[in-house]
Write a structure and sequence with these properties.
heterotrimer; A: mainly alpha; globular; C: mainly alpha; Four Helix Bundle (Hemerythrin (Met), subunit A); 8 helices; 78% helix
Chain lengths: 224, 33, 258
């Protein structure tokens, strides 16, 4: 089987499982919505102010929301010793990782598709910059969160307090990506400066950490 | 007023360093006994 | 550059770790304390008072060495983690030793970085009027602190045989991430300038202040190395005890089975 075929096999399985239960999606969706509403109460932004802070709120909400789902994608593998089976399978371990990343990416993107319009409504947003750049920022930002998130979720899989541990190790490493996501979104919304630098940085971050995660995944899968 | 921060800084430094040294030595004593 | 320092420190440490008894190591403590005592005297009485900032400037003789140590020991941790990952299958003995160095240097890093941050905050308020600013250097140091706390938490929460490997991987991530953090904040601050805690603390540094700085740099370095070696030995002890009890359990099992 080719690499792509293997990745697709893993991915299809995950998507099918998720479609049947819809656990992660529902949880994440509602969580993000709640965060958006809570922040409205916390900041009560006027239209001008909201443009400055919406970027930050959006990405923090997504960060927290994806954390709730990231753990779940791997714990699914723990039941029925599926993870051990994966380790013994002759297919490359990185294929499993890529599939998980893609699955998580799709889930978070689905959340964004629902959340985006709501965001615009609640904060009365109207991009002063070039709105279509968001089509670059959203996937790149999501990928940054999801790549490291999936990796660290696998890393904390057999730890004592895994739900607690994942954000603790994920957030510090994600800080530069978060900065880039928020800055580029703010740049697009406020139109006050050029998002180009940040979008490039985000792309660079994605490449660097995707490579690192692919290289090291086999190591942590077989950590014992 | 300035001196207060100075004293505090030196104090914090030594407290943290000696505190850490203390935990290492205490750990050593525990494995001995 | 720092990587070379870290590798050198790692090599020095592995040589030093051959000192047989911890008691012998207690020679390090008087030496470190002696150097630090001279450093203290230099800092308080010999070094001139800063024209602009007054006596509180003397903070710098503890603040800067702490920060420098806090930037060297992470590299020791990084080198040790790489050594661990490289040798864990081929040479388990060396891997265990490397892991002990990684753990020891991580903890000592945290001590030094915490002190650096705390003294920095204490210095900032009277001089610049603010406790904190999100400039590249401060933010990177804070992120370094956060990452090493998460490293130690990972080690604490992980069970059994996988702790070392997972921690080593996290260490690699940390090493890649911190420079990226620094650069990203720098770009951020070229776009949205914020108060910068003035240049290097070497701006306006009188030649007469160098002895105090050097004595304290040397003293805290010796202290730091001593701490790492002590912690390393403690960890090695713990590893031996663990392995022995595992061996005992195995042998007991072998005896009871027919």
């Amino acid at each position: 089987m080719s690499y792509a075929r293997i990745v697709w096999a893993h991915l299809a399985k995950d998507l099918r499982l998720e479609w049947r239960s819809k656990d992660a999606i529902n949880g994440m969706l509602f969580f993000s919505l709640l965060v958006v509403v809570l922040f409205s109460f916390a900041f009560d932004p006027t239209m001008a102010v909201s443009r400055r802070i919406a970027g930050g709120i959006l990405w923090v909400a997504l960060l927290f929301a994806s954390t709730t789902a990231l753990n779940q994608t791997w714990t699914r593998e723990l039941r029925n010793q599926v993870l051990d089976a994966q380790r013994m399978a002759p297919s490359p371990a990185s294929a499993l990782f890529v599939a998980k990343v893609l699955a998580n990416f799709l889930f978070v993107t689905m959340i964004q598709v629902v959340l985006g319009p709501l965001f615009i409504i609640f904060y009365n947003l109207h991009a002063l910059g070039q709105g279509w750049w968001m089509a670059a920022v959203l996937p790149l930002g999501t990928l940054a969160l999801v790549v490291n998130g999936t990796f660290f979720a696998a890393l904390s899989l057999r730890t004592r307090n895994r739900e607690m541990l994942l954000p603790l190790i994920l957030f510090p490493v994600s800080i530069p990506a978060l900065l880039a996501m928020v800055q580029s979104t703010s740049a697009i919304l406020t139109g006050e400066f050029d998002p180009g630098l940040w979008i490039n940085m985000l792309a660079g971050y994605d490449i660097i950490f995707m490579t690192l995660c692919l290289l090291m995944f086999e190591t942590i899968l077989n950590a014992e | 007023m300035n001196h207060r921060h100075l004293i505090l800084a030196y104090l914090v430094t030594w407290l943290l360093q000696l505190g850490y040294l203390g935990t290492v030595l205490a750990g050593w004593r525990r494995t001995r006994g | 550059m720092r990587l070379i320092q870290g590798a050198l420190a790692y090599t020095t440490l592995s040589l030093l770790s051959n000192i047989p008894m911890k008691r012998t190591l207690q020679f390090g403590l008087p030496i470190a304390l002696a150097i630090l005592a001279v450093g203290f005297y230099q800092a308080m009485y010999v070094a001139p008072t800063d024209a602009a900032q007054g006596d509180i400037f003397r903070l710098i003789y503890y603040h800067v060495p702490s920060n420098i140590m806090g930037l060297i020991f992470p590299y020791v941790n990084f080198v040790a983690s790489i050594v661990f990952l490289a040798t864990r299958r081929s040479n388990p003995m060396r891997a265990q030793a490397a892991d002990a160095v990684a753990l020891a240097s991580a903890e000592v890093t945290l001590v030094f970085v915490s002190i650096g941050l705390a003294t920095g905050i204490l210095w900032a308020k009277p001089i610049w009027g603010i406790w904190w600013t999100w400039d590249p250097r401060l933010t990177s140091v804070l992120v370094l602190w956060l990452i090493y706390v998460s490293y130690l938490l990972l080690r604490r929460f992980t069970a059994g045989g996988q702790t070392e490997t997972l921690a080593a991987v996290l260490s690699v991530f940390a090493a890649v991430d911190v420079p990226i953090v620094y650069m990203s904040i720098r770009w951020w601050r070229t776009q949205h300038p914020a108060p910068v805690f003035f240049g290097g603390p070497n701006s306006g540094f009188d030649r007469l202040m160098w002895p105090a700085m050097l004595w304290n740099l040397a003293g805290w370095f010796v202290w730091g190395v001593m701490l790492v070696v002590l912690r390393y030995k403690l960890e090695r002890k713990r590893q031996c005890i663990e392995q022995k009890s595992a061996l005992d359990a195995l042998e007991a099992e072998l005896q009871t089975s027919p």
